[in-house]
Specification:
The protein is 40% helix and 17% strand. By secondary structure, it is α+β, with helices and mostly antiparallel strands. This is CxC5 like cysteine cluster associated with KDZ domain-containing protein.
Amino acid sequence: MSSKKKKRPSGMFDFGNVLSKFEDEKRNLDAIRERLKAVNEIDLRRLLSDACVLMEDEALQLLASKLSFEGLLNLRDAVRHVPKNIPRVVNGISLRYSFIFKVFESLPSQHLVMSMAEFQMYVKFAETYCPNFIAEKKASDHLWKLTQTEDLPFNKFLTPPVARCFQCQKDLTVRNNPSKAKVFTLDGPIPCTKVTLECRCCSYVYGICNYSDGSGSHFYPKSDEYDVELIEVSNVTYFDAKLYKWFPSL
C-alpha cells in the first residue's frame, strides 16, 4: 500500500514568515511615526527669527504637522477672510489677528486649542513662507475656461440627490446623455451640466428636484439626506433657493 507524501506548506502561509512580515511593517510604521514626531517638534519661531530660506512646500508640511491638514485649510480660509490693512493694536494684540483668530475658531471641524500668541506665530509663518497658498485665487476661473473649450459646462454639475432607487434600493443608471442647464444664483447665472437618473427595474425616473413613478411626479422627502436647494422653473432653468427667497420683496 503506497502512502502519499504530504505537501509542505507554502512559505507564504508559514507562521514564521507571516510574523516576520508583520514585525517589519510595524518597524516601518514606528520609523514613520518617529520622523513625523521629529517634524512636529521643530520650532517654527526659530525659523522665523533666523529668516531661514524654506521652499513653500516644505513650510506647508511643517504647518500641516502642527495644525493637521484640515487645520491648515481653516487657517488659510481665516487669513483670506480678513484684509491686511487693519493696523490697529488693542492691548498689545493686533486687531487683525484677533479677527482672524475668531474666524478660525468658528470654522466647522475646528478642534485645535491654542493661545493667541501661538496662533499669531502660525499666521506670520504662513504669510512669510506660503504666499501662493494663502493668496486669494478665483477657483472658478479655470472652470470657465474649460467650459469655453468643451461641449458641456464644467462650472457646476446638477444631479439628483439620490444614487439608489427608493423602491428596490438598486443602483441607478444615467437616463439620458448629460445636457446643458442654467442656475440663477445671487452671483448671477451659472451654466451647468445636468444628469438625470433612472431605475430600469422599477421605471422610476429621478430628476434634479423631483422624481416620478407610475402614479406621477413627487418632490423628494424633506430631510438632510435629500436636501435640494434649487427651484425648477423648466427642464433647463433653475433658481438657487437663496435667490428665490428674495422674490417676494422685489
